[in-house]
Specification:
The complex is a heterodimer of chains A (about 120) and B (about 110).
Chain A (H helix, E strand, L loop, with lengths): L4 E3 L2 E4 L5 E6 L6 E8 L3 E9 L2 E4 L8 E7 L2 E6 L8 E8 L11 E2 L3 E5 L1
Parallel strand pairs in A: 2-11
Antiparallel strand pairs in A: 1-3, 3-8, 4-5, 4-9, 5-6, 7-8, 9-10, 9-11
Chain B lengths: L3 E4 L2 E5 L5 E6 L7 E6 L6 E6 L5 E4 L2 E6 L4 E6 L8 E8 L5 E3 L3 E6 L1
Parallel strand pairs in B: 2-11
Antiparallel strand pairs in B: 1-3, 3-8, 4-5, 4-9, 6-7, 7-8, 9-10, 9-11
Classes of the chains: A mainly beta (about 120), B mainly beta (about 110).
């Protein structure tokens, strides 16, 4: 398996521009996560999808951020308009959520390093 | 109460040493405690995980010690190697998906 695939790996944009980050989860996984990693705040969960449905978006910082999962093999995280404080590494992770509350490993992608000038 | 406090922030050991990374939590409802390893330019990868019904778990050179009464858990790396140089994150979760991550420990193992 190729693992979780993210694109682009690096993105440099100017303040005010729209940014779209993409993620392809591991085939067969039914849960998808978007995280943001910064030196100041560490790893933060932004949003969690289960079976393509957003379950928990309480970590999405503000209305400028939106995420979609139109099908089981693709998700996007969009920032519009972008601001310099959005500069971070954004990770997508996927897992196979098992019934009965059993724990499932989250597999992380390589991340997208976003720089907003 | 949702925080997971991790220490130290950075750690340097000689090859063969046993680095120890500590984490503490407040929420007694947490029921799953994974450790993730992250190399520069890569995403975090699960290293080892423990549930609160056991006090220790070993996988190869990596050991988690868990103290439920103290609400603390730690990662020990036996016979550390330069290839273990990475950032290590502890985490805790209640339920199946929401991980609360520690702030990370940057480990450097000298050759």
């Amino acid at each position: 398996d190729a693992g979780v695939i993210q694109s682009p790996r690096h993105e440099v944009t100017e303040m005010g521009q729209e940014v779209t980050l993409r993620c392809k989860p591991i085939s067969g996984h039914n849960s998808l996560f978007w995280y943001r990693q910064t030196m100041m705040r560490g790893l933060e969960l932004l949003i969690y999808f289960n079976n393509n449905v957003p379950i928990d978006d309480s970590g999405m910082p503000e209305d400028r951020f939106s995420a979609k999962m139109p099908n089981a093999s693709f998700s996007t995280l969009k920032i519009q308009p972008s601001e310099p404080r959005d500069s971070a590494v954004y990770f997508c992770a996927s897992s196979l959520a098992l019934a009965g509350g059993l724990k499932d490993t989250q597999y992380f992608g390589p991340g997208t390093r976003l720089t907003v000038l | 109460q949702q925080q997971v406090k991790q220490s130290p922030q950075s750690l340097i050991v000689q090859k063969g040493g046993i680095p120890i990374i500590n984490c503490a939590y407040e929420n007694t409802a947490f029921d799953y405690f994974p450790w993730y390893q992250q190399f520069p330019g890569k995403g975090p990868a699960l290293l080892i995980a423990i549930r609160p019904d056991v006090s220790e778990k070993k996988e190869g050179r990596f050991t988690i010690s868990f103290n439920k009464s103290a609400k603390q858990f730690s990662l020990h790396i036996m016979d550390s190697q330069p290839g273990d140089s990475a950032t290590y994150f502890c985490a805790a979760s209640k339920g199946t998906y929401k991980y609360i991550f520690g702030t990370g420990t940057r480990l450097k193992v000298l050759a």
